[in-house]
Amino acid sequence: MVDSIRKIGFIGLGSMGGDQARELAKLPLELTVYDVAPAALAAFEGRANLAATMADVGRDADVVGICVRDDAQVLECVEVLLPVMKPGSALLIHSTIKPQTAIGIAERAAAKSIDVVDAPVTRTEMTKDGPFVFCMTGGNEAIAASVQQVLNAFSTNTMHVGPLGSAMALKICNNLVSWCGIMLGLEVANLAESAGVPMDKLLTVMKRNGNLTPPMQGFIEFRNNPGDAAKRGFFASQAGIGEKDLMLAEALAAGVDTTAPITTHVRSMLREGLLAICNR
User: Fold this and answer.
1) Is residue 2 part of a domain?
2) Which residues span the domain enclosing 187?
3) Which parts of the chain fold into alpha helices (H)?
4) DSSP readout, 12-29?
């Protein structure tokens, strides 16, 4: 368990991880960051130590956070970090991955006296300054409490869920709601437009009665105005993220011997539907 925190490492400076690291850089602690994209790393010049390699993030760090795309990338980070992290340090997995992947990592880390907390995050505030996520934690509650200073830096809310992997399961369920809502919103927009309903009036009613969530609104607005190549590229990448999230939900359902027919249907239409908008 972490006794005190003086040095933090962070890997993955994308749209979510970069904002987490932005808030970590405000702490009166040493921060070392790494990303495979040179531009993402360069953005932290003067605010953090820029690691030349992934291993440099883990050396002598008390806490290391990982926020990369998927299970494979998390495991790639773990292969490099576990040999160099010191006993008594903690590894926080912010990426959304299979609960069993997190459990397997923790078992390997325990052999080196390194603690693991599954700590996925979901946005609560659309802001470019200040805490902006709800961070869920799974694992030993005392270990999660020992890294609370790190979590508080970027979180509007934190909550301990239960055993290791439970926070990942919760995040997967949360993402499932988001993606089903997004795809339903796009279908509703198509239907309303075909039926001659003014789009602004549809959105006004849906927003007022609570049906229009921020993610749904963002995707409907993209449907209505796909914009430039950069915007289209971002939403095309979201198609891949959505597909991954829905596959995780299907795997979770299979692992606990339940069915998820809506999940499977939404996944079958997600990539094609979003890419059709991107390619208009």
Assistant:
1) no
2) 169-278
3) 17-24, 38-42, 54-58, 71-81, 99-110, 141-146, 148-154, 166-194, 199-208, 214-224, 229-255, 261-278
4) --STTHHHHHHHHTTSSS
Give the chain's domain count: 2
Instruction: For the full predicted model, state whether its pTM sits above 0.70.
Output: yes
Model pLDDT for residues 59-69, shown as the tens digit of each residue: 999 999 999 99
**Domain end call among 144, 162, 180:** 162
- 3-38 per-residue burial string, b: 16 or more CB within 10 A, e: under 16: eebebbbbbbbeebbbbbbbbbbeeebebbbbbeee
Residues 88 and 188 placed together within one structural domain of the fold: no
* Domain match, 80 and 115 both: yes
pLDDT tens for each residue of 91-146: 999 999 999 999 999 999 999 999 999 999 999 998 889 999 999 999 999 999 99
CA–chain centroid gap for 34, Å, is 17
User: Across the strands, what pairs with 121?
Assistant: 135
Distance CA(176)–CA(170), nearest Å, equals 10
Instruction: Locate 84 and state its tokens.
Output: 């160099």
